[in-house]
Amino acid sequence: MKTYSLSQLAEYLGAEVRGDGDVKIHAVSTLARAGKGQISFLSNSKYRSQLRDTKADAVIVQPDDLEFCPVNALVMKNPYVGFARLAQLMDTTPAAAELVSPHAVMAADVELGRGVGIGANAVIESGVKLGDGVQIGAGCVIGKNVTIGAGTKLWANVTLYHDVQIGRDCLIQSAAVIGADGFGYANDNGQWVKIPQLGRVIIGDRVEIGASTTIDRGALDDTCLADGVIIDNQCQIAHNVVIGENTAIAGCTVVGGSTRIGRNCTIGGLSAITGHVEIADNVHFTGMSMVTKGVSQAGAYSSGLPSQPSREWRKAVANVRSLERLSQRVRKLEKHYSEHDSADKGDR
């Protein structure tokens, strides 16, 4: 178990030490559960009561919370970012694969960089290029002519179809499928005629893709995810979608084909974005949003209705069903009064 002095951690984070800089830290934990040798963080002042009672050896706090901290502290503007960086530093997650397993199946022309790990029963097809330090978990299938950049990690049972390109330092969780056919068909008198999906999936650097997420290949052009994109579990990204830098998409979201999403967007879980629309940079959709047209202005958007007691919901639905009838009555009244106003003006 590697340990660090509080002063070393302060230097790593660019934080200020308050208290004993020699105290030894080996792990990160919550305020409520942290104990000796552990560091925690406070990023929301409503949890100050937990700060008061914490048994942590140190806590990362912002300047306004320092006076409430009863233990050693690292002071910085954004404690949550400090926590994230220390969690990376002290991460004990094992490698997806450390060596090339004798039970892996590889084509003769596969190009391996230095320090590549390939797990048991992985299949690596012809023309694949794996950069330095790539980890391919057990049971992965890497299709023909795939390129994976240095430092990228695939957990078990990931499937990459042919011609997929993935950049450096990406993380792909188990059972993700990248490069499957997009949903492209033409209708010939009631019969569906499949359109071969001839594009690729191109993924930039530092992209993370959640478990069981599917990213379809392009129909003619490519499906593209730019640097820094993060996608949660069980999402569907359809063919020819383009997602800009550092956009985050939460779980169970669906993005329709040929949609373009800008940079630095956030999309809440269970959202659905229709196809062939464009979303500007810095757009933020709350959870369960239904996006049926493009958004050209940055800002926050919502459409999901919060739950309510069933009796109230039934009444609301009944009222919605009456809206058309009510609208017709209003139009008749408006027409009636408009005609009377015209008649009155004519008499003057």
TrEMBL record:
This is UDP-3-O-acylglucosamine N-acyltransferase. It catalyses: a UDP-3-O-[(3R)-3-hydroxyacyl]-alpha-D-glucosamine + a (3R)-hydroxyacyl-[ACP] = a UDP-2-N,3-O-bis[(3R)-3-hydroxyacyl]-alpha-D-glucosamine + holo-[ACP] + H(+). Catalyzes the N-acylation of UDP-3-O-acylglucosamine using 3-hydroxyacyl-ACP as the acyl donor. Is involved in the biosynthesis of lipid A, a phosphorylated glycolipid that anchors the lipopolysaccharide to the outer membrane of the cell. Signal peptide: none annotated. Pfam families: Hexapep (PF00132), LpxD (PF04613). Pathway: Bacterial outer membrane biogenesis; LPS lipid A biosynthesis. Belongs to the transferase hexapeptide repeat family. LpxD subfamily. InterPro entries: Hexapep (IPR001451), LpxD (IPR007691), Trimer_LpxA-like_sf (IPR011004), UDP_GlcNAc_AcTrfase_non-rep (IPR020573). Its EC number is 2.3.1.191. Keywords: Acyltransferase, Lipid A biosynthesis, Lipid biosynthesis, Lipid metabolism, Repeat, Transferase. It comes from Lacimicrobium alkaliphilum. GO terms for cellular component: membrane. Gene3D superfamilies: Hexapeptide repeat proteins, MurE/MurF, N-terminal domain. The active site is at H239 (proton acceptor).
